[in-house]
Amino acid sequence: MSTVKHNPSNIMSFKRLFSGGIAASILMMAAALASAEDRHHKQAHHDHAHHNQGSHAHDGHHAHEDHHAHHYTQAQTQGYADTSRSRMTVIPEHIQSKTEIAISNYPLFLLSEAVTKGAPSGKLLLQPGDVGHHGSLSPSDMKTVKDSRYVVWFGSQLESNLANSVGKSPNNISLFRFNAFNRLPLRDVKGEAIEGTLDPHLWLDPDNAKAITRALGSLYSRANPQYKAVYAANVQKFAKQMDEAVAQVQVNSQTSRPYWAYHDAFGYIESALNLKLAGALTIDHHLPPKASQFHWLNKTRPQPTMCMVLQSDSNKGVLPKLKPVNSTIQQEDMSDAKDFISGWTALAKDINNCI
Asked: Which residue ranges have biased composition labelled Basic and acidic residues (predicted)?
């Protein structure tokens, strides 16, 4: 997957093209949804055929349902309703009833909740804090995956723990497949971009958050068209609130403000806050920092008192080795947030106060 180099000119170039990228992505989303439905219906038909093998009456019934499923999927893919035929065609109950959408993780669920306010919510699969390599699906979760119209996740680059479950489900929609999001590479402990990599925490970019809600609005409108106006209004409201949140926390500064991170997880919020990563302690928060990295951070510190963004209380033991230093504890998945806007705003304000 291609990545965008981490520099201001590339970010600005992306933002100039963002509206066009969204339009292209929505078209890609529509094609992906049709493809997911087709795969899901084929899998359901295959399962029915195996389950009812030897029962001619049931075989005939499911063949009838499959004919209607094909007609329904084809009409959705073409983007119109054939009213002359729809009067004679009843959408099969096992398709019509699948209006539920499963959402893989908490930050994505917060964005989903912004879209579905006033309409049925999506179903959260993993608990808050279970993003990335953490968490697994229970048997009931797997049933939810199978019974949902769509299962939305970011993709295996972030959620490798779901690659063999959600990733192999025929109704999965991976947001990383779409090109309408600003993408940044992972960085090493010195803040240098690692070529050919993707920083998966893209929801922290305000423009990405708005783009995700647009994509979710399109998806929910397909699954529950009776709420289409509600979704559209919510997406518009979220974009306005996100812009207001950014304006509230932006800092006027001629130069980027340096900060340290325990590990590089906040790259996507840097542009909004005018920040620049001056270094991290470890490339992976599961790995302990090396003594040489403490030495390098102290030697290259760009200002006398630095801010270190930690991710848990257990990280505080590193602070005495980096004095003078301020610190703030932040979770990039906003696992303690009630809604996306307030969670993002609190995270941004805390980092600003630390710096």
From this structure: 56-68
The two tokens of residue 150 are 């769509």
Domain containing 326 — which CATH number?
A: 3.40.50.1980
To which H or E segment does residue 30 belong?
helix 18-51
The single-letter DSSP state of residue 283 is S
Eight-state DSSP code of residue 263:
S
What is the tens place of the pLDDT at every residue in 37-80? Answer: 555 444 544 444 444 444 444 444 333 333 333 333 233 323 32
270 in any annotated domain: yes
Burial class (CB within 10 angstroms; exposed 0-12, middle 13-18, buried 19+) of 25: buried
The answer to whether residue 295 sits within a structural domain is yes
Task: Categorise residue 155: left if φ over 0, alpha if ψ from -120 to 50, beta otherwise.
Answer: left
What are all long-range contacts of 96-100, with beta carbons under 8 Å and residues at least 24 apart?
Answer: 98/147, 98/148, 98/149, 98/223, 99/149, 99/223, 99/224, 100/144, 100/147, 100/148, 100/149, 100/223
Which one-letter amino acid corresponds to residue 136?
A: S
In a domain, 184, yes or no: no
Question: Does 293 reside within a domain?
Answer: yes
Number of domains in the chain: 1
Range of the domain at 326: 251-354
Q: What does the pLDDT look like over 263-310, one tens digit per residue?
A: 999 999 999 999 999 999 999 888 999 999 999 999 999 999 999 999
Q: Whole-angstrom Cα distance, residue 150 to residue 39?
A: 11
